[in-house]
Write a structure and sequence with these properties.
The complex is a heterotrimer of chains A (about 280), B (about 650) and C (about 270). By secondary structure, chain A is an alpha+beta fold. Chain A has a five-stranded mixed beta sheet. Chain A has a two-stranded antiparallel sheet with strand order 6-7. Among the domains of chain B are: about 140 residues, Flavocytochrome C3, Chain A, domain 1, CATH 3.90.700.10; about 100 residues, Methane Monooxygenase Hydroxylase, Chain G, domain 1 (Up-down Bundle), CATH 1.20.58. Chain C is built from eight helices and two strands; from the N terminus they run H-E-E-H-H-H-H-H-H-H. Chain C has a two-stranded antiparallel ribbon with strand order 1-2. The longest helix of chain C has 23 residues. Classes of the chains: A alpha+beta (about 280), B alpha/beta (about 650), C mainly alpha (about 270). Chains A and C meet through strand 2, helix 6, helix 9 and helix 10 of A and helix 3, helix 4 and helix 6 of C.
Chain lengths: ~280, ~650, ~270
């Protein structure tokens, strides 16, 4: 183990620096050990899982280990990250096959013997190593019509009750890590559905706007309930809840956004009388 | 060299945090074709980390609030070193900037009558911070991001192209500001490009490593802070002082770079999260600080000037939470700089916690239910990252580098950088607004107020340009060569090849230990020597692999910026022989009224050898505060800050 | 998922040309197959049991208890139940088990239920078998086409499920008689019925459609405080929809089986009073 791998000792001058800073071997501290990692390395032309043996110290997360690999064994290992506190949603990857944030996956959840596999998100085109091309999500974001401000209400005159904003506020906790988009089998397993399906994150955005107490889309002739189904592919969702399972913000995407949105679409589209009327009229044409 | 891709824009905004996005929105709405360029993905900027709120004197919770009170609080917080006109504009315009966010879809927490709720915060006389739980920064960034998307949707309707008038170049880095050649032929064009007008930026795409040039008559810098030059910081990897360095290299001065805010309570363990913020509300809600001996040591650290305002016994401090009118507040609630210094002293004296911090405990005063309800994100942060249940155990905390008050010297009204026509700066990268110390909540409002102003005046400048300035070819070539250097070098006769990660770690350790919270003359002199050594070694930094998404290369390029900015901090800190706000000198512990009139400007020396100091300091006199603004303060208060002759003016 | 089940060609989904080149369909190391397997086994067991019982047309009444599978009983061939919910709406021409007439409603309710959909899409159709485990279908159109687009009629089954639950409530009241129809008695059967009806109601009212109808569709909760409160309450129940779905499924089967045991004489109802 190289000496460059020492992690922060104390607050610079603290008393603890001797304890953690001095030792370089695993024997210096009972908590340090060598973990087996398999990290996917490659690019759009191909790649493979590479094995690494790397030091792990007490309290570290997977992202720390990836950084240690960068600093000591693979200087050009590509990875996205920013805040390192689960607030920006940059370091999304798949760890032992499960979509997760690397900064929020503690090493202590794994046994010391097990090999930890880290791959890029498998629903998006790979760029290099752990970095994928997430432009699908930005494209979909543009396809959702924005908030429509209520006409005749000046800035500063907006009045909303807390109970009316609670629902949309839950969805606005989203950090756009795109783990839900990654895990959703509609696009993960079926590339061809990407054109028609906005994915959980942006269907949730439609729900957020439709539940916004002052959104004036309806008044301007935009029916979000209907377009959720017709333009954003709500019908592709078969509510198998993987989006909710992987959400690091614990947003109840399925129960609070997607299903209510489906029910709202039903209000518009599957009222049997309206439906029958439309059918008959269309036949007549 | 192959032909570089060049794109023409009216305004280029560097940075996509709160200030950058607000500037881009304004510029685009004023009709300028605007490009935003940012190092991370769109929507990931460090602004998302802000928790507390946006300070704006809307008076929704306490009708007594108004811009004058906000102005007064801001100046007190900054120890009167603020660029007063900025503080005035900030206080006046902040409410409009917040309300405007609502028309773009933001959903703040509400008051009972349906208005935006506002919360108390340190240094603010009234409840003033508009907030969304403890994720206000996320709401701000998302709202601005979605407003940009909405403008792009408009353009799509009109032109069939989302990016016709507003484009985000994400995951791209700017390494140089390009200027037009000097108009007067004499002297040629120096490598530092002084003179001339802003003509664009030189960039590379992180994904491919491809170089490109964005040509524009106006460039807005909104790149945030410098925290990554310090070892323990609450800042993200992006905070490498890029904007500061770009401005310096383009010929603009940096202002008062010695003022760096250390937040007293950051996490110290586990190592992976060291530096991450533990919000001030923890102490506000009753958290107590103890050392390894179990002592509430803050009672030993109350400075004389605060003696009357803080409790002398634990009992009194405890009573304050219930009855603030008849008791004095506990010393845990002293200003950030005092608490940070106290924690630092305890750790140095060997009374620190296991991992080199002190203990912050809420479990003794609040029931588990109350802790979980009032501090949900802190509860989860410690539970998930440190495996510490704060309802039952104490947190370990220590000071963390949080914010730089210093920055690019700008014109208060227009956000134009001094001395470089076409260059603008807003947000943390701009100096002056916060003086020597920033109040919590004032940074988000700063982003919005001056982001908008920068965008506005940048758009006007672009429109006013008769002919588009064209970047000088020599500068482009030099920039490309500079960016490629880490691939070519293999060490030289002077020494071996260097690993950029190692250099970065040594830089962080140096700044942390020698130009940290408590500063001493000999340590800063030592730091400058070390920085010179690192500069030499950085010229031999080598990266392996190729240009496609290569983090080692990116770091090697960022090192230039961090070294420049660190030198500014160290030199300015050495120069200012007093203690004020975010600058504490052990050898000069008092605040000196004469120093209040002095702004320290950092500029490039023009030295070329790597061992030579790159930064020169000049002293500039501060502009006297306008009398009607001074009149907002009591005479007795002004006496503490202003020199005799200023009082009589 | 209305289409083929042959394994996908190597060029789609996670093994598509643009994705990271990783051969396995998934890299999960946990026992991800356990949950869908258990779900499938549980649902299958219920299907087998209920099919047998629904077609049996026997042993569904043991005074005072009527099996929930046969209530209300709507044909002439129903066993006579004193004050019980048997109305001969379908007259004498119906020769099959009367359970089939009524089971269509609870069955439809559960079949289109958002939770059961998840359960059988995962358990039976492997679409997906588990999160981040590639599904074995070449094409997927979700609920966009016939027949699965019909899942959208869930709420009409909810409307139907409410009166059925009402009748089962009535049955539960009747269960507080003894075998001679005297009121004020209670046996083990009464207790089972009581538990069952509580779970049936909890499941029915925790339904996502119910939550939508009573309040979720509103834009301004602040203008409808009563419906907001109801919505909030339904939301809390809704959080346990899965547990309630299983609990009520089991309790219905247990109630029926208990009646079967009594009616077939295999067991005597222990009376409490």
């Amino acid at each position: 183990m190289s000496t460059g791998t020492d992690t922060d000792p104390g607050a610079g001058t603290g008393t603890s620096s001797a304890a953690t800073g001095g030792g370089t071997g695993t024997s210096a501290s009972a908590s340090a050990y060598e973990a087996k990692f398999r990290v996917w390395r490659g690019d759009a032309d191909g790649g493979e899982l590479k094995d690494f043996a790397v030091e792990v110290n007490d309290g570290e997360v997977v992202l720390d280990i990836i950084h240690r690999l960068q600093a000591t064994q693979a200087a050009d290992l590509a990875v996205r990250w920013n805040c390192k506190a689960g607030k920006c949603g940059s370091c999304s990857a798949e760890i032992n096959g499960r979509p997760r944030l690397m900064c929020m996956t503690r090493m202590s959840v794994f046994s010391r013997e097990e090999t930890i596999t880290v791959t890029p998100l498998r629903a998006f085109p790979v760029i290099r190593d752990l970095v994928t091309d997430v432009s699908f999500n930005y494209t979909k974001a543009r396809e959702v019509p924005s908030f429509v401000p209520p006409p005749g209400v000046a800035a500063g005159e907006y009045r909303m009750q807390q109970v009316d904003v609670d629902r949309s506020q839950e969805f606005r906790k989203c950090i756009e890590c795109f783990l839900c988009q990654d895990t959703c089998h509609v696009v993960r397993d079926h590339e061809e559905n990407k054109a028609a399906f906005a994915g959980p994150r942006f269907l949730m955005r439609v729900a957020e706007l439709d539940m916004h107490p002052l959104d004036a889309a309806a008044e301007s002739g935009l029916d979000r309930k209907k377009t959720a189904q017709d333009e954003h592919g709500l019908g592709y969702c078969n509510i198998t809840k993987c989006c909710t399972e992987v959400c690091p913000e614990h947003i109840k995407i399925t129960d609070n956004a997607l299903i209510p949105l489906k029910e709202r679409a039903v209000d518009r589209k599957y009222d049997p009388l309206v439906w029958l009327g439309n059918k008959i009229r269309r036949r007549g044409e | 060299m192959t032909q570089l891709e060049r794109r023409q824009w009216d305004v280029v905004v560097v940075g996509a945090g709160g200030a950058g996005l607000r500037a881009a929105i304004e510029a685009r709405e004023r009709g300028a074709r605007t490009a935003v360029i940012c190092k991370s993905l769109f929507g990931k900027a460090h602004t998302v980390m802000a928790e507390g709120g946006i300070a704006a004197s809307m008076g929704n919770v306490n009708a007594g609030d108004n811009w004058q009170v906000h102005f007064r609080d801001t100046l007190r917080g900054g120890k009167f070193l603020n660029q007063w006109r900025m503080a005035e504009l900030h206080a006046r315009e902040a409410p409009d900037r917040v309300w405007e966010l609502e028309t773009w879809g933001a959903l703040f927490d509400r008051t009972a009558d349906g208005r935006i709720s506002q919360r108390n915060f340190g240094g603010h006389e009234y409840p003033r911070l508009a907030h969304v739980g403890d994720r206000t920064g996320l709401e701000l960034i998302r709202t601005l991001q979605q407003k940009i998307v909405s403008l792009q949707q408009e353009d799509y309707e009109e032109y069939g192209d989302y990016e016709a008038r507003l484009k985000v170049y994400q995951e791209c880095t700017v390494t140089r500001i390009l200027k037009s050649p000097e108009e007067t032929g004499e002297g040629g064009t120096g490598q530092d490009g002084t003179g001339g007008r802003v003509a664009g930026v030189f960039c590379y795409e992180r994904e491919s490593g491809r170089f490109f040039v964005l040509e524009a008559p106006s460039v807005v810098l909104a790149t945030g802070g410098i925290g990554k030059s310090f070892k323990v910081t609450s800042n993200s990897w992006e905070y490498t002082g890029d904007g500061h360095a770009l401005a310096l290299l383009a010929g603009a001065p940096l202002l008062n770079m010695e003022f760096v805010q250390f937040h007293p309570t950051g996490m110290v363990w586990p190592p992976s999260v060291k530096g991450i913020l533990v919000t001030e509300s923890v102490r506000g809600d009753g958290g107590v600080l103890r050392n390894s001996e179990g002592k509430r040591f803050m009672f030993d650290y109350i400075p004389d000037v605060f003696k009357e305002k803080y409790a002398e016994s634990e009992d009194e401090g405890d009573r304050w939470y219930k009855d603030p009118d008849h008791n004095r507040r506990p010393p845990e609630l002293l200003p950030r700089d005092e608490v940070a210094r106290a924690i630092n002293s305890e750790v140095k004296a060997g009374r620190g916690s296991e991992h080199g911090g002190v203990y912050l405990d809420v479990s003794t005063r609040m029931s588990p239910e109350v802790v979980r309800r009032r501090l949900p994100s802190m509860y989860h942060q410690f539970k998930e990252l440190a495996d510490v249940d704060i309802t039952a155990e104490a947190m370990e905390v220590g000071p963390t580098c949080h914010y730089v008050m210093g920055g690019i010297a700008v014109d208060s009204d227009t956000a134009a950088a001094l001395g470089v026509p076409g260059l603008y700066a807003a947000g943390e990268v701009a100096g002056g607004m916060h003086g020597s110390n920033r109040l919590g909540g004032n940074s988000l409002s700063d982003l919005l107020v001056f982001g908008r102003r920068a965008g506005l005046y940048a758009a006007e400048h672009a429109r006013g340009a008769e002919a588009r300035p064209v970047p000088e070819e020599a500068q482009i070539e030099a920039a490309a060569a500079e960016a490629l250097r880490p691939f070519g070098a293999e060490g030289s006769a002077d020494g071996p090849a260097e690993n950029p990660y190692t250099l970065h770690q040594e830089l962080q350790q140096t700044m942390n230990d020698l130009v940290g919270i408590i500063r001493r003359e000999h340590e800063m002199a030592q730091a400058l020597e070390k920085l010179a050594e690192l500069r030499v070694r950085a010229s031999r930094a080598v990266v392996e692999g190729h240009r496609q998404f290569n983090p080692g290369w990116h770091l090697a390029l960022d090192l230039r910026n961090m070294l420049l900015v660190s030198e500014c901090v160290a030199r300015a800190a050495l120069e200012r022989t007093e203690s004020r706000g975010g600058h504490t000198r052990e050898d000069w512990p008092g605040m000196d009224r004469d120093w209040r009139r002095v702004n320290l400007h950092c500029t490039l020396t023009g030295a070329t050898g790597p061992a030579d100091g790159r930064i020169a300091l000049t002293r500039r006199e501060t502009e006297p505060v306008r009398p009607d603004l001074l009149a907002l303060f009591d005479k007795e208060e002004l006496v503490k800050y202003l020199a005799e002759e200023e009082l009589h003016e | 998922m209305a289409t083929g089940t042959q394994p996908p060609p190597a060029s789609t989904g996670v093994r598509g040309p643009s994705r990271a080149a990783i051969a396995p369909r998934h890299l999960r190391t946990d026992r991800w197959w356990l949950a869908p397997a258990a779900t499938a086994a549980g649902l299958l067991a219920f299907i087998v049991y209920s099919t047998w019982r629904a077609f049996a047309n026997d042993d569904y009444y043991a005074a005072p208890y009527v099996s929930p599978f046969y209530s209300p009983c709507l044909a002439e061939n129903c066993a006579p139940m004193r004050s019980g919910p048997n109305w001969e709406i379908f007259g004498s021409w119906w020769g099959l088990s009367p359970a089939l007439l009524i089971l269509i409603f609870p069955l439809g309710f559960r079949l289109t239920c958002y939770y059961y959909r998840k359960a059988y899409y995962r358990g039976f159709w492997a679409s997906p078998p588990a999160c981040a485990v590639a599904e074995p279908h070449a094409k997927y159109s979700g609920e966009t086409r016939f027949p699965l687009i019909l899942q959208n009629i869930h709420r009409y089954f909810f409307y139907a499920a409410v009166p059925v639950a009402g009748i089962l409530t009535y049955d539960t009241v009747l269960a507080f008689r003894d075998e001679h129809y005297a009121w004020g008695h209670m046996g083990l059967g009464s207790l089972i019925f009581l538990v069952n009806i509580v779970l049936i109601w909890a499941y029915t009212l925790s339904c996502h459609s119910c939550r939508h109808i009573i309040g979720g569709r509103l834009r301004h909760f602040s203008k409808h405080p009563v419906r907001y409160r109801l919505w909030d309450w339904a939301g809390r129940l809704n959080g346990r929809h899965m547990q309630l779905a299983w609990a009520s499924l089991i309790s219905v089967a247990v109630s029926d089986f208990y009646v079967y045991l009594l009616a077939s004489g295999a067991f005597d109802d222990p009376r409490f009073f």
